[in-house]
Amino acid sequence: MITISLCMIVKDEEHTIDACLRSVQDIVDEINIVDTGSQDRTSEICRKYTDRIFPFTWIDHFAEARNYAFDQATKEYILWLDADDVFEEEDARKLKELKHSLEPHYQSVSMIYNVGFDGHGNVTLSYRRNRLVKRSAGFRWVGAVHEYLAVAGPIYHADIAVTHKHKHLKAGNPRRNLEIYEKQIAQGHSLTPRDQYYYANELRDNGLYQQAAENYQLFLDTNACWDEDAIAACDKMASCYETLGQKELSVEAGLKSLKYDSPRAELCCRMGRYHMERNEVDKAARWYTLATEIKRPETMGFFQDAYWTWVPHIQLCICYYKLGDYVRSYEHNEKAAEYIPSDPSVLHNRKLLNDLLGNSQTVTKEES
């Protein structure tokens, strides 16, 4: 059985840290907390679970803080989490089993990261991250902002999810990450292609949509993009132009993703929405149908899960309703209901279509 050190960086996490540590305390063999300057009860709460709490002076560099946390580990493997992450009960059970079954040649274990949810509890955004790494491999974090763990060697892709539970919005500067990038640029530092992508993300998150779109294009122009980041950049650039009301540019940006891979469900739904807005229902239906037929690729990239599950079906329900095919409209509404059974639109559609199909059947009987 392997042993695990949990390594975390925290600051003012009193609203979330207890749930995080409680979910993993019976799994890990050591907990290391690096506090970058908390002013609340974070350290007090952490001391219920560990006395290995280390202060770290914040220097506007996330990788430096995470590497310092990794330096405190003493066990065979290192697990990292953020303070608002938890292992749900089933995933905690799977991680306990993995401690007994992980083969020693694996240098890293990737896990699913569920970061977005709808009102029904369905995952809306997920991707994979390298979560558990062999300490002897000496892997290090890279990047001042949106840091990543540079790993190599055999990776085991586990069927284990880490769930993001952001229950509390902390006070602070929402422009912090953007300002770190701008400070680096002002100091003459060149952004790597990856930093260029995340800089564009920060511009977008701060409502600077035109600048964000321009920087996504600069990222793509480097021709040094990981394909998954390039696909995401095309989708986010399309969203920026859509927010700006520039629909044609939005479509052009979305279609650029086809340079990097076959169509993804996110693009298909975007194209379906574009044609629906132009009242080109047949074309919209073809795009939404394609979204239901695509197999989700096994990659480390980002996926907006709603577009791979219920969204195309609810849109096909609308398409076929407009085309007068109430049977197929009903069928797709019921497929959407498998994911969002209590959604008001699903319930409304079901009643409407049941009434229409009932009337249609009555007419048929009378005519016969």
UniProtKB/TrEMBL annotation:
One of its GO terms (molecular function) is glycosyltransferase activity. Residues 5-98 form the Glycosyltransferase 2-like domain. Transmembrane segments: none annotated. Its EC number is 2.4.-.-. It comes from the Bacteria. SUPFAM superfamilies: Nucleotide-diphospho-sugar transferases, TPR-like. This is Glycosyltransferase. Keywords: Glycosyltransferase, Transferase. SMART domains: TPR.
